[in-house]
Design goal:
Blueprint (H helix, E strand, L loop, with lengths): L13 E11 L5 E11 L3 E3 L2 E3 L4 E11 L5 E10 L25 H9 L6 H18 L25 H6 L19
Antiparallel strand pairs: 1-2, 2-5, 3-4, 5-6
Helix pairs in contact: 1-2
Length: 189
């Protein structure tokens, strides 16, 4: 465990597992498939019944199929466990609205416009955001990102600020800081 030890004894109440796998398909496209699983460690009343510890509260799947330009060409959702059968699972066909979106600047805004709030499922919409970052990781190291285009991970987190030392060292072409670029190995993430 990399966190410090807790200072008080604790009782586990809720567990969320998210698993995402990126696949290269035989037809030249890529599937990014995610599963979100929520379970309780205690009895939990929802949807008019008590679910015992370990029984899934949410068991939801989302798959997007993307082309080499990270444009979504197909999308499918499935809800296997839910608090409100007949309601929660009624929205899964709407995740086909992801088709046509490009994963890049503005992606999350477009997802929320199409599937935010009552127009979608909170959990599946959150999963759509995670699938986008997993798509970049799926493409990393595959030689799929054009070298003339700024790598999408730059300026998306503290470590990859285009004005910082990490970018100066590993992505000198895209470095925008004041200090001279140092020599060192480059890599694609």
């Amino acid at each position: 465990m990399s966190l410090s030890e807790p200072t008080a004894s604790r009782l586990p109440l809720h567990r969320r597992t998210i698993e995402i796998v990126g696949y290269r398909r035989d037809d030249g496209l890529y599937d990014i498939e995610g599963r979100l699983l929520d379970r309780k460690d205690v009895d939990f009343t929802v949807g008019g019944r008590v679910k015992p510890p370990g029984e899934a509260i949410h068991d939801m799947w989302l798959r997007i199929t993307v082309d080499r330009d990270l444009r979504i060409v197909d999308a499918a959702a499935s809800t296997d466990a839910m608090p409100y059968p007949g309601s929660c699972d009624g929205i899964t066909p709407d995740y086909a609205k992801l088709v046509g979106l490009s994963i890049g600047p503005g992606y999350l805004r477009h997802v929320k416009e199409r599937l935010g709030g009552v127009h979608g499922c909170t959990h599946l919409t959150e999963l759509a955001a995670s699938l986008a970052t997993a798509a970049f990781q799926t493409f990393a190291g595959q030689g799929l990102m054009p070298s003339e285009r700024k790598p999408p991970q730059l300026d998306r987190c503290h470590a990859l600020d285009s004005r910082g030392e990490t970018v100066a060292r590993f992505y000198p072409k895209w470095y925008r800081g004041a200090a001279p670029v140092s020599d060192g190995p480059t890599e694609n993430h």
